[in-house]
Amino acid sequence: MADTFDAILSNRPYRSAGTHADAVSEIYGGKGTQFDPEVVQAFMRVDQEVWNTVQERYPDEAEKIGHLQMRAV
Description:
- By secondary structure, this protein is an all-alpha fold.
- It has one domain (2-65).
- It contains 5 helices and no strands.
- The chain has helices at residues 2-9, 20-29, 37-44, 48-57, 59-65.
- It is flat and about 30 Å long.
């Protein structure tokens, strides 16, 4: 799941980076098939403050992936 999250938020030669909402939607869509439902539920419980802290702690990385916005699906 971490690889999917990173892949969606990273620029690729064939497409621009997706948003955090794109990643959440893709991961949630794979719940029970591609991803373990319990792991997805844990991911969905991550608070917006945590994403903000990651962005503050790793500003260069945050600039690459854009502002992280947690959004309910």
